[in-house]
Batch of 3 targets.
Target 1
Amino acid sequence: MRIVIAEDDPLLREGLALLLRAESLDVVATTGTPDEFLAAVDEHRPDTAIVDVRMPPTHSDEGITAAVEARRRHPDLAVLVLSAYVEQAFATELLSHGGARLGYLLKERVGRVQEFLDALHRVAGGGTAIDPEVVAQLLARTRPDSRLERLSPRERDVLALMAEGLGNTAIADRLVVTEGAVHKHIRNIFAKLDLAPTDRSDRRVTAVLRYLDDTRRRR
């Protein structure tokens, strides 16, 4: 896996590079500004980018903007976004684009090395990785509408793990149930949220968006 890192904190930037290289991953460039990041992506054509949300000059959304531009130039680029705290608009924006090859983690997750590496590999493999704390905070602020109230507690557990980007096998392991039980819960979630099969949408992502969109609307 070829990786470019965009992080303006030099200690975290170099710490990430050392961690990843120790795992035999190929860190081809480390950058501290959005312009340097985009130049590195164009030059090295990495498989994956790790990008801080807030970067110079204003430390607002430059990282997200640069990540979106990098994906526009290189649609197959996997992007794992790091943030110091939960920023709802950015998490929702990531999922609203389908979630493929995208991740959103809190920086504190980097210290939990195996969880961080699992998320990185999941995103690089074409999946989604949303920090459990992001999901928990967003769902905690949600006042359920009539459709969400249809879900059982177990179905809510399954949906929360879906939002983290876990597949059926991983969900089954986390909840200590069979894959068949997970598959049944997911079918029930789709039915209760009125998500019919269609070629034009990803029902897993749409189910999570129902939570996040409702949260944003009610803030």
Target 2
Amino acid sequence: MVASPHAEKFAAHLRMLKDRSRRGYDRLGKEAGVSGSSLHRYCSGLSVPADYRVVHAFAKVCGASAEELRELHRLWALADTDRDAPAVPVKDDPEPEPDEPAAPLQASPGPDEPAAGPAQASPSPGPDDVTPPEIAPDETGKPRRSRVPEKWSSRWAVLAAVVAVVLVAGFVWMPDSGTGVTPPAAGDRLLYSRACKSVTMGQHDECVREVQTLLARAKGKLAIDGDFGPETLRRLTAFQVLAGLPATSVADDATKKALYEQKVSMTTWSPAEVAKRVREVFVEDPDTAVAIARCASFLDPLWVLPNTNGSRNWGVFQISDARLRELDGTPLRAFDPEWNIKAAHRLWSARHDFHDWPSCEAALKEKAKS
């Protein structure tokens, strides 16, 4: 079975970090809070971890830089989207037996179409679908000239003309994605055009760039590069929560409207302000608490991390959906750094340790030993 290209790139990035650390899987696993055999599967491309925190902890113990962590998160998100896609077996199609003609190829049915049964007969071909037979020679022995090619040529000409018209019409509204086509003017609200009907993860075009530009105007911190990756996903999701919209992580109609209205501000605490407040709340162990928060969210109050089961983690201490329900919280409250830090302290108080952040805690303990 063959892993997806995204999974292969993700595994290659993990192997690079592992090789550079010059440590074995068992040792790295102990430091990252995961088994060595699991790390071997991840680095070999045999599986993709369901929880990004495992990846983050592994990368941190390998000494990954901030830029490498961002790239690793991007690769993990892309590999994670391929998790449910069936792997493709690599094998050669067997040649048909010489006494049996090869079965004709049939198109696979779409998701809404029933598959044809083994005894279902194919529709009879129409007169224009039949391949012309060999042309018999005339009475002089010369081959007769067939009129079929002329008929086909005229049909192909008409088809080519129709395709050309469709393409020209499409270029009128398609955004510029490196093809030299000029997008609508800035005042035309590009996101309302047919070209930007859907703006989602993995997209790379001027529609994404427009979303990023509007998020930046709302004081969201992100790169404006036209690439809808994990960074844009996090910022768009945070914007939706702050705007009181469903956190779909997709630029739908309601989100586009809110982006253009510019009534939502994504201004929040700086990392220094977050660290200061964490120390004030976690008076029992301030240094460890700051390290845990930095491991979980880079001290970003609007940090969002999606999980493969559909749940998400929110805010400074990356409090999960399940924990939010227990704490009578919401994603919006989790984005309030004051509430988030105090809620994390409530979780810590249950056992006076950081058991709710196992990967970060394990990484810190191993780092302290070395």
Target 3
Amino acid sequence: MDKRRIGQGGPFVSQIGLGCMGMSDFYGETDRTESIATIHEALEKGITLFDTGDFYGVGHNELLLGEALKGKRENAFISVKFGAMRSPDKSFIGYDARPEAVKNFLAYTLQRLGVDYIDLYQPARVDPNVPIEETVGAISDMVKAGYVKHIGLSEAGADTVRRAHAVHPISWLQIEYSLFSRNLETYILPTLRELGIALNPYGVLSRGLLSGKWSKERTTNQKDFRSHSPRFSGANLDKNLQLVENLRKIADEKHTTVAKLAIAWVLAQGEDIIPLIGARKRSQLEDATDALNIQLSQEDLERIEQAIPASEVAGDRYNESEMKMLDSEK
């Protein structure tokens, strides 16, 4: 598998990474055996980047990833998000990115993963009550102590990225990016490129809308994030599924699938982009790695963007309260 660099002078990792969140949380029932098998197959296919969060499954995801990577640590670049707080019933009860909290969260993460250091550590959101300089400064202390190698940000706006980068070099920004989520192209992406910071997109299939397998009749339970998502609701869903059908016509012409084409589009946006693929099953992982073989011409890219105009996507990517938490959307 080809490699892409994280930040200026940073390490090279596989050009796609495995997002492990869905193996523990947010998308309904999970299968531990299949999850571990998927992580092992990712390693076999040359994937070295694995992304988790300490609040995914209230620690479950870190324990799962630590178990799957036991004896294979040297082959993995582990990125971890922190900051979200949850109660025993798994509801979200706040966010904390104070310097003391940073170090506390990290201590538990190291223990759950069974590792001596984290390759990249990042706040899951920008804490509105804590200057980003203080949060990044605390992670920088952990870099100096050897517990963290690189620092990232998640869902941060352009100004916040600049402020953070002035404290300690930021290696990447993790943010949702797909044919259905392109707001970052206006200010955030140019800022990253000016500063030499990589982009680590998640949600490249827009939570499954761009999988080509979603239908109007499909239902979700209350444990599934999508049951509360504006893009999966009512008239918004109807409109978005029509956009998917526009893309399917191009995919059919190229003898590929909607999902593979959507992933290939993200990969084609620049060598500084390292997408996460949220595969919970080996079959989903295979779709992602197949996308690496798709070459898109400039004409292909233009046709794809005409099929899914950014202005035509219906509904926000999160509900109203969650959108207000995104520094990247301010």
